Amino acid sequence: MSISDLAPETLQLIFGETLFQCPVPSLRQAPLLLAQICHIWREVTIDTPSLWATCCFGAPPVRSSVGQRRRSASWGIKNIQLLELWLSRVGKQTLRYEVYISPHREDVALEVVSLLLQHVQQWGDIALDFPAIVLPESMLTQSDHVFTNLTKLTLNNASVAAGFNSPNQSLQSTGSWLTPEQSFPVLRHLNLPYMPRPALGPLGFPWSQLSSLQCSGWTADDGVVVLLPCVSLQKFTYRWSIPGSSPRAMPVHRLPLLRYLQLTNQALLAVLSLPALTHLHLQGVVRQGPDPFDVVRELVSRSSCGDTLESLTLNEEAAGGIPDTLYQLLQQLPALTYLSLNFDRGLPLGLPTMVPILSDPGCLAHLRTFVFRAWMDDDPDALPSLLEAFKKRVQVTNSALEKVALTVQARPSVVTPPASPPDHYPAAQSAEYLARHLQLVSPLIVEEFRTLALNAGLRLRLVAARPTDGFRDGNGQFVNREEDMDILVDTGMTGEALYRCACTFCLSDVDA
């Protein structure tokens, strides 16, 4: 029996397994590829609506090798013929579509919106990336459409605030025939990236029923405004454009169900109470105002979440000293299983900071994954002391530590200007400066770390890195290029697996 002799129902099941997670309209991918093989496969492909229910139109942002997102050179849907073709074959299937329109193709934007709105009852997981002239939010929230099956919605239009002039407008529908709850009865996940502050006010979404919200604003205050009606949130990711801003004095806002929180910095924490918090990610602690570690400690005490917080990520973003309160904070978190500290801005926080913490068997007793990045000066005892601390940690009975990613970095020139080569330096000396990380760690220490990992069964990655200045991208993000990293030890921790959080919230996958 050949594959062509299989029943159409069997072929449909097989074809369904050939789809990429987010397929694109291409003759090299299913379903179009399947339709080219023979007339039988073509008929089966066309008559299988599920093959046409998931697609990404318009060459979305692609992920580079280091995880940074960038646009392809010719992104954006050029016409709507392919979208029409997919919709003509999708039957009554629930749609999982991503549609990207280039800022220079306003001519097709309104056509695309109008075409998609003819199938609103089939929307399930929809992402729309539209140019400035189009405001799909208004077309969605100020109409009599009922999005019966829409559970997840992403709207990306940075100029959506053009028609709004007040950030304090009520978070209710404006001019809609239906209430937000009637229009979006099952909407639970909302993503509004790059939305300026005024946009957070009048959009008519059912805020009170959302379990996951990602958005952005101008200040920390805007995050409070959008949070107030979101009483059912379990996950909140919020970025704001003014890192040093702090929310106005106001009563503490209690979110009893919130388990995952990712913020630009610690400013919002002062006005929140989060008794169920499991995952806290601060993209950058800021040295303006109160001590950031004290702010986190106060949140933990106020919320009584020390026994629920399993994952903590802290990145440094501004100059200033690192206080001893980091140790005090970690002592308050007995349930912590994942800890990531990224202090690569040349601050006075080096490797010795973690020595007393790791050496204390009563601190972080349940820690399974530890990710640490910090500069290393000329102290010859810094890395050996940290090595001894790890030895003590793994020798403890029932030690939970499983995975360690340790990056030591040549001290950045923002702290030590004499060490930074001026522009007029000869190329040879500049190259020597940029290659300082290659001499950071002695071969003896490398071998001791490798032996420790093998004896203790640790999945360990030890890396020496260049100083941050000179190899950040245009957005100021650290770039893990091969020439910037000297991987000294890697016992099975290649790829991004090490950095993936495994707290109970992340494992529950609330966005699924």
From TrEMBL:
Q: Which domain of life is it from?
A: Eukaryota
Q: Which organism is it from?
A: Mycena indigotica
Name assigned to this protein = 2-amino-3-carboxymuconate-6-semialdehyde decarboxylase protein
